[in-house]
């Protein structure tokens, strides 16, 4: 008989681990269990509690994984450094009072917000390449996500190069883990998993908006021909980038109005389309038809930018569907049928236009 004291077993969802990462799934399950014991929208845990349940991770590991869960939109954090404060104050996505603001440590002297056009310098890129073996092209591929995340948080810091370095190293490790698990190209009839959908829905993103992003996501990765093993994680990041820009950038008028004769979409629309990997020239080709149709109809709308964005996403999805049809996708296949339904949505209706 073993003399070791009985320990609490760790339980986690394999499908969730495949979506957000093994470490993230383990910590998330523990946080959910402890949150249920405390009750209330916000849970306050001591560092010692976490280390008692997860003794194989250091404080730095726990903080890194907790930040990863925050970045994926699975939890909200209301505390600063785990090592300095000795506690983790959090809520599961959608559980906390929306009026409770996430807090961060006070900015250090000389701190400043990230500039919209911030770029890492050559020394930093060489450091990543020589010390960590990270190709410069890979590091630069992470720049858009980095800028979007920190610009949306609107926090001031004094060491943005250091934060970018940590961001790239974390993504590089995830990339290596994906390669070790084996990869495969995305399927033509790919759909996000239930776990991926739940994560996005709990982040407050419209289900129709999520589903409308599937065709553009599949088309982009099939055209690139790149193999991968974490399509759900990539899809989560893809949708979150678009939704953040959509909610922060599109201008909503107070009163509905007919389409002006000389109307042009704002640059924000093309920024969102770029995040959706939709060609700007394709969008401009649809403008004349869009304007002619809505001037003839004469129906007032609150946001013509949103209406045009909806139209372009539908047309892009339709083009993708036609490619699948010519490629020989079986129209009787259940997943193909589900995919086709996604190409006929009106996610802007009710969200922006109130119809």
Explain this structure to me?
57% of the residues lie in helices and 6% in strands. With 355 residues, the protein is mainly alpha-helical. α8 (143-153) crosses α12 and α14 (280-297) packs across α15 (304-326). The longest helix has 23 residues, at 304-326. Residues 1-5, 94-108 and 324-355 have low confidence and may be disordered.
Labels describing this entry:
globular; mainly alpha; Arc Repressor Mutant, subunit A; disordered C terminus; 7 strands; 3 domains
Report the helical percentage: 55-70%
Task: Let me know the largest β-sheet.
Answer: 3 strands, antiparallel
SS-based structural class? Answer: mainly alpha
Cross-sheet strand order for the largest sheet: 1-3-2
Number of helical segments with 4 or more residues: 16
Cα-atom radius of gyration: 23 Å
Spatial separation of the terminal alpha carbons: 68 Å
- Low-confidence spans: 1-5, 94-108, 324-355
Shape: globular
How many structural domains are formed by the residues?
3
Number of strands: 7
User: What's the average pLDDT?
Assistant: 76
The share of residues in extended strands comes to 5-15%
SSE blueprint and pairings:
Blueprint: H1 14-20, H2 22-38, E1 43-46, H3 47-53, H4 59-71, E2 75-77, H5 82-85, E3 87-92, E4 112-113, H6 122-132, H7 136-141, H8 143-153, E5 156-157, H9 160-181, E6 184-185, H10 194-202, H11 207-224, E7 227-228, H12 231-249, H13 267-275, H14 280-297, H15 304-326, H16 334-342
Antiparallel strand pairs: 1-3, 2-3, 4-5, 6-7
Helix pairs in contact: 1-2, 2-4, 8-12, 10-12, 11-12, 11-15, 12-13, 14-15
């Amino acid at each position: 008989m073993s003399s070791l004291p009985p320990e609490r077993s760790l339980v986690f969802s394999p499908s969730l681990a495949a979506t957000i990462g093994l470490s993230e799934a383990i910590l998330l399950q523990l946080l959910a269990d402890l949150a249920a014991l405390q009750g209330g929208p916000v849970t306050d845990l001591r560092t010692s509690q976490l280390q008692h349940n997860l003794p194989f991770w250091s404080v730095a590991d726990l903080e890194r994984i907790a930040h990863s869960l925050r970045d994926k939109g699975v939890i909200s954090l209301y505390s600063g450094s785990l090592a300095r404060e000795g506690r983790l104050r959090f809520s599961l996505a959608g559980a906390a009072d929306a009026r409770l603001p996430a807090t961060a440590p006070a900015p250090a002297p000389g701190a400043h917000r990230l500039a919209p056009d911030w770029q890492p310098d050559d020394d930093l890129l060489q450091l990543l390449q020589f010390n960590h073996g990270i190709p410069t092209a890979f590091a630069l591929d992470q720049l858009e996500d980095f800028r979007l995340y920190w610009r949306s948080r609107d926090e001031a810091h004094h060491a943005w190069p250091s934060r970018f370095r940590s961001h790239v190293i974390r993504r590089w490790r995830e990339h290596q883990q994906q390669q070790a698990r084996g990869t495969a190209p995305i399927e033509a009839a790919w759909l996000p998993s239930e776990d991926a959908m739940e994560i996005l829905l709990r982040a407050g993103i419209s289900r129709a908006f999520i589903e409308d992003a599937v065709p553009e996501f599949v088309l982009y990765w099939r055209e690139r021909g790149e193999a991968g093993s974490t399509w759900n994680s990539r899809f989560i990041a893809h949708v979150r980038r678009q939704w953040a820009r959509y909610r922060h950038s599109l201008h909503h008028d107070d009163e509905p109005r007919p389409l002006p004769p000389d109307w042009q979409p704002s640059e924000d629309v093309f920024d969102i389309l770029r995040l959706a990997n939709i060609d700007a020239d394709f969008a401009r080709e649809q403008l004349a038809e869009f304007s002619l149709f809505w001037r003839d109809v004469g129906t007032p709308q609150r946001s013509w930018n949103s209406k045009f964005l909806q139209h372009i996403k539908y047309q892009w999805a339709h083009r993708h569907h036609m490619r699948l049809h010519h490629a020989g996708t079986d129209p009787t296949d259940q997943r193909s049928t589900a995919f086709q339904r996604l190409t006929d949505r009106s996610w802007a209706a009710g969200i922006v236009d109130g119809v």
